[in-house]
Amino acid sequence: MTDPRGESLPGALQGLGVLYFGNDWYGENRTSSHHVARRLAGRMPVLYVDSPGMRAPGASGRDFKRAFAKLAASLRSPRRLDARLWHCTVPQLPFRRIPGVAAFNRTFGRWAVRRAARLAGIGPRLSWFVVPHPGFLAGQLDEELCVYYCIDDYAAHPGVDAAAIERCDRELSRRADLLFVAPPALLEAKQAQNANVVAAPHGVDAELFAAASAPSTTIPAAAAALPRPVVGFFGSLHEWIDVPLLEWLARQRPDWTFLLVGHAHVPLAGLRELGNVHLAGAQPYQDLPRWAKAFDVAIIPYRLNRQVANANPLKLREYLATGKPVVSVRNPEIEKFGRWVRIADGRDAFLAALDAAIHEPDGDGAQARMAAVADQGWDRRVEDVLDAVAARLESRRPPVPGDATP
């Protein structure tokens, strides 16, 4: 069956909406949370619920003021973003160890989400969690099915209340009616927690990032005149980025330009001192292919920690879709693309891989890299996910009288 926008929807999902708990909708990075929500909204009504941050809370007056300001904001009507997509914020008080706060969060959260769904006109619904900490609402929203789409090892994120987030993740993993798992390294552990687990690799906006190879695409003025070769990176410069590695590489190759595109969440004083490092700051997602066109090679310089070991980096597929050579550290998901990515273990190997990539003849291997992810678009990923959701929903519904086969 086809909806008015021409996109198919399995019959079991007809007439349903989605209460979607995801990352900050207005964050500078477009994550899988945003990509999936947009495509779900092309097929069915979606209320995107911004969830509170996962960091360990403080007890400052500033934190209290921010928490109550967000609670007040949550009383506003949901904002319509598209024909079938609404957005609202339903925060929690972060001071979970104070008696009564957990009960307040459950009661207020349930009331606020149900109210927002009613105002958005969403009746029968699924609940869909992409982050674990609002998972206490699973089964509390009159949903027909609860989906947990696990895209990360959340408890390994820097600065979070690791014990609390790990507990939320474990409880939601067990409670969900259907559990999708993006990082391959987490699949076995999740299968031990839930009998209904589906591997769900990330997708990519292949058409968008292929523009980096198009002759008509222009390089931003701030990057057009940078000395070549250009070693490029786009994404958040966060705690999981190996900044000391970047500094070392830039010092080893002072004639190269290191172009880093993304918001800096950590101090970068050492990089700022280097004349061959260009920090472009955060840029609109749609403009990333223009910046990537300036790259001679793209890099994934992650720290080797638990978070990275269990990660499924979006930028891996986005880089490959540009056709640019890629040099990366190692993890299980990246190893799956070892035919098209130069994987380096240690600083010296990373530098040697960069040397090899930069001396690769122009265009050599570009088509193979783009072809490696050409069939992994987000539209196809969401179609597969919805098929699995529909099948699970059908399996839970009681049989219709008279439908049994003699």
Keywords:
disordered N terminus; 6-stranded parallel β-sheet; Rossmann fold; 15% strand; alpha/beta; 16 helices; 8-stranded mixed β-sheet; 36% helix; 406 residues
Describe what you observe in this structure.
Strand 10, helix 9 (269-272) and strand 11 form a beta-alpha-beta unit. Helix 12 packs across helix 15 (366-373). The longest helix has 19 residues, at 101-119. Helix content is 36%, strand content 15%. It has two domains: 11-203 and 377-396, 3-Layer(aba) Sandwich (Rossmann fold), CATH 3.40.50; 206-372, Rossmann fold (3-Layer(aba) Sandwich), CATH 3.40.50. The two termini are 28 Å apart. The strands form two sheets. The chain has an eight-stranded mixed sheet, with helices on both faces. Strands 11-10-9-12-13-14 form a six-stranded parallel sheet, with helices on both faces. The chain contains 16 helices and 14 strands. The protein is α/β, with parallel strands linked by helices.
Named CATH architecture of the largest domain: 3-Layer(aba) Sandwich
| Estimated helix fraction | 25-40%
Number of domains: 2
Radius of gyration: 22 Å
Q: What about the largest sheet?
A: 8 strands, mixed
Q: Report how far the terminal alpha carbons are from each other.
A: 28 Å
Strand order of the largest sheet: 3-4-2-1-5-6-7-8
Strand content: 15-25%
CATH topology annotation of the largest domain: Rossmann fold
Order of helices and strands: EHEHEEHEEHEHEHHEHEHEHEHHEHEHHH
Tally the beta strands: 14
* CATH class annotation of the largest domain: Alpha Beta
Task: Show unreliable segments.
Answer: 1-6
Indicate the overall shape: globular
CATH H level of the largest domain: which superfamily? Glycogen Phosphorylase B
Report the mean per-residue pLDDT as an integer. Answer: 90
SSE class: alpha/beta
Number of helices: 16
